[in-house]
Every structure is written in C-alpha cells, then in structure tokens.
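Hi R.,

Here's the chain you asked about this morning:
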Amino acid sequence: MADSGATTPTVFVLFGATGDLAKRMVLPAFYELAQEGLLPDDWALIGNGRGRKTDDEFRAHVRDALEKFGPGEGVETIDETVWSDFAERVRFAGGGFSVDDAGDLPSVVSDVTDELGGDVQLVHYIALPPSTFLDYTAALGEHGLAEGARVVYEKPFGTSQENFEKLDAAVHEVLDEKQVYRIDHFLGKENTQNLHILRFANGMVEGIWNREHVEQVQIDVPETLDIDDRAEFYDATGAVLDMLVTHLFQVAAEVAMEPPPSLGADDLQTARESVIAAFRPLDPEEVVLGQYRGYTEVEGIADDSTTDTYVAARLWVDTDRWRDVPFLLRTGKMLGTSTQRVSLVFRRPDGPVKHLPEDGAVLSFDLSGDGRVDIAMTVKEPGPGEDLGIGRMSLDLSTVSDAEPLSPYSRLILDVLDGDRSLFTRPDGLAKVWDVAAPLLNARPDVSLYEPGSMGPDEATALATPCGWLVDETS
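And the predicted structure, written out as tokens:
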C-alpha cells in the first residue's frame, strides 16, 4: 500500500481513550494504519482520561482492545513486529482535561513534541459524547493546544438545532473551520465513495441517474443489534438523532448531489451541502417511529421511555434532477437482518413487454465491509416459454485489481492526517439538516411497538409503495 501523504511528525491525542468508542473503532483503526505503513515516519499516540494509568498500563489496554475488536480489515492476529514498534509510541496523560484543570496532558504533549523534534502536527480526536464537546473545545483553547491543531468531533455534532448553533459558535471561537473534522463514518465506507465514482466515471450510469429513469431511492440500514452496551446514550438519542439526521441524510446527499467541478475537498463538500439545502422538511405524516418490545426492560431504560429504536421516513429532494422521486430512509435496532444498502429502483419502460415486476431493475450498493455493487434486471427465463424472471449480478469490490480497502474509521483518520476534508461535514450542511428534521422533532409521531426479529412496524410498509422495501428478513 502506498505511503500516506502525511510526512510531518504527528501527535495524535485521543480523548476518551478508555471508552467504548475508542476501544471498538478508533484504536483498531489507528493500528490498522500502522500495520499498512500509512502513518508518518514519526508519530505518537497519547491517550487521555480522568483516571491515571502508567504508559504500560495503557498499552495493555490498547492491546486488549485490538485482541477483542480486531487489528484491521481482514486481519485476525496482531503482528508482533508491528505491535512492538506501535507500543513504544503510545503514552497516557491522566487527570482529565478541562478549562480549570488540564491534568497531565500539556506536559505529556510537550515531552513527546520534544522527542519528535519540536515541530509537530497536533491531532485531537474527541471520542466522547456530544455533551462534552463544548468543554473540551474551550479547554484546548485555554491550555494552548488548539493553535494549528486538527480536531475530530464524533457525531452527532449537536443534538438539536439550538444545541448545534451553540456548539458551532463555540467551536469557531477557538478553531478555524479548516481545523475542524466532523466525522461521519458512513462517508468513509468504500461503497459510499463509490456512489459518486461509479456515477461520474461511467456514462451508462450517469445518463440514468435522474427522475426520468429512477422511480425511488431506498437507503436501508436495519440492524439486528440491541442497545444493551450503550443504553444511556441511546435512550437520550434514539434512531432519529443517532442515524437519520446523521448517516442517512449524508448518504442521501451523496446520491442526490449534482456533479461537482472536481472531486477536490471543497467541491465535493459544496455539492453535498448544496443538495442538502434542497431537502424538503420532513412531513411527520411520512415518518414512522418504532420501539422494539422489551426495550424498556433493558437496564438503565425508564419503564415509560418513548425513545425511538426505529425510524422510516420518506424524504423529498426538490431539485430538477430528483423532484417527485421519494428517497426512502429506514433504520432500526433488533430487526430481522443487518445490512447497509442503497438502491436505485428504475421505472418500468413503456413498450411491448407487459406485466413487468415493480422491482425488476435495481442498482444497489452494499455499504458494509469492503462493499459490493449489485444489479437486478428483468430477463426471460431460459426455456421454451416467455415467462419473465429477475437476473442478478454482483461485483465484490475487494476482488477489483489491486484493491487495498481500509475500514471506514481508518480511511477517515488517514484523511485527517493528510489534511483532506473531502469526506467530512460542513456547518452549512449541518445547519440545513436541522431545518429538514425540525417538523419531525417538533411533532414526533407516537412510537409503534414492533417485535424483535421483524422488520419494524407494519405502518412503514405503505411508505415504500409501489415497490415495497427491498430488504427483508431473508436479505
């Protein structure tokens, strides 16, 4: 794999280093970059937390996280040579980090900076709940760790329109916009990026990527997982905030955007944010919220909680390209299958072949793993009759020549190290997202109960007519 474009010595500070997100996602992703030779020649990783650990204790914690959650895509065991070099560069700064008390972090950063030669790129990754973003941002400014640094914020960047505006203003009191990286790991997925590459690089696809040919778009992310491991966070968030206004809206923008002048960071971001501005505010009558039976029995969840663990919504994009084409968005917990799929369902042509199936021509993108592109089309069933059937073809992206896929978090962290903001969100688009979601948040439908293992409330079926949801329990 080619070397990273980042050559400046880099100090990567991980706030919340002993938390669940760091263990499951960030630490394995950072290690994956090390084993692929994609980190700068000189780097250090400093974990930060309220407690105090020795460097060796934190290294043991990192090793445990890698053994539990994997050292990288397609790699089952830790390479001891890579680990030995990696571990030497890992440090810990305890005592917390706040405006009033910076703990050990400034001194550890200073020591590591001296060891690396004095001129380093600081990268701060705030792997903590959004309620902490204001305090940590202010502390970075107060203790002199913001100047020239790049700061990564986990989603959601704000939990309401008012909260987003307050957070955005506070961040820009300390940081320039070019220093800010609001992460959405769905944008780092190989096949999310392929949405615009396949379209813009292939005339046969670009020519049909519009309302004249597409009847509906489905963005479907059902999950079989429950919320036991993060009940407190989830009950304060729910499916709408956790998935709909973050991941699903951003993927919809990838599908719906107009061709940018280039695939450079500014042009791609502008194309995404421009089409989000054309999203019609959600109509609560076109949204179904659900909660799986047994949710309120989970430890930490109130008996009367009305938090949504499921959402299905019909979104309209008011551009000349997509006007009157429904974008159907669905996600939920404890459903009958797990997948991450974007599907364009094509209109049935007028012509001599009658009685065509509603979903007889579909172009789908599987966003999970390394990604896959699937095509379904109506064909004549082989044999003496004239019966119609649906034929299917698949392209697994990992089989493409010279494929070297990275996990989404690894790809996005690499982009941060390289200073590439192409796959990160901008405040103008996020501000519009809250305008789009406002009618739903202000007049939430009642949640409907659904059985674990089903595909959600029956009320959502009508949203996807006439084609119906393409993903079901057997998918």
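The mean pLDDT is 90.

Let me know if you need anything else.
M.
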